[in-house]
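Following up on my earlier message about S-adenosylmethionine. Here are the inputs again, as you asked, copied directly from the submission form:
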Amino acid sequence: MERLTDLKNIMALCERFGFTFDKGYGQNFLVNPSVCPRIARHAVQGKDAAVLEIGPGFGVLTRELSRLAGKVVAVEIDRRLLPALDVTLKGYDNVTVVQGDVMKLDLAALCREQFPGKRISVAANLPYNITSPILMKLLETGLPVDSLTVMVQKEAAQRICAEPGSRACGAISLAVRFFSDPEILFPVSRGSFFPAPKVDSAVISLKVKQPPLEGAARACFFRLVKAGFAQRRKTLSNALSAGMGRTRPEVAAALAAAGISEKKRAEALQLEDWLRLAQCFDSAAPKPD
Ligand code: SAM
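Thanks, got it. Here's what our run produced:
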């Protein structure tokens, strides 16, 4: 099969397999030939690399990953694409396609079965409607993942990679930074896809790190961030007392213990501030009986 970035080949596959693009699955396929090799070069570290791809579509990125990696497992939700993938990935013998919804699959079990004892990289042109839930599932589940190299909408990329303390920072920026070091790699214009979406995209890299908190303190960090950014225009004192169900004096005590001014807003805090606050919140602002 010829290049999968050629529109005539995409149309031929659509016709042969009776395939029509489903917006609900975020099906915008890459037709810019320079993008997939760049994603693959970044995602694949060495000939033995184990790579998990989310949403292969017709397999345009899968082929590039397969050329560089030891093994590629590609999870695709849309059963209609499976017969086409049989054809487009013929001869790419280190690729296994798994049909399933990445949000429902037991990814830890999948990694154990497919990549026993290996650390893995994730690569994807993600379905845009579920970018954040997929990223959080991949980061939170304690999978043996070292890095994620994924295409997301440009605005999502900016939000995910925003520096804490900047106006663009939101709950997702801090949640991602809890587990990884994020970076925008390069922009991708809307014309690089078929059908073309209404917005531009960007490829981001998340280098996974050891999470800084475990157990109750970790859960408290995520509740605090959610509460703080749910009312980001309000001072921390107001936002946290509303969102955490505590009195203002209780919240004031916790903020004082963490050395944070109660007049600040969520977007002004650094990751370290949130981590300190999470560690002392329950002892400084005890839950009412
Ligand atoms: N990789 C192809 C490319 O770059 O041209 C297709 C990318 S397209 C943006 C997103 C792909 O993810 C589609 O193939 C879609 O069917 C698949 N997908 C959507 N939701 C999914 C889910 N929950 N689990 C697995 N795959 C999903």
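One observation from looking it over: The chain has twelve helices and nine strands. Hope that helps, and feel free to reply on this thread.
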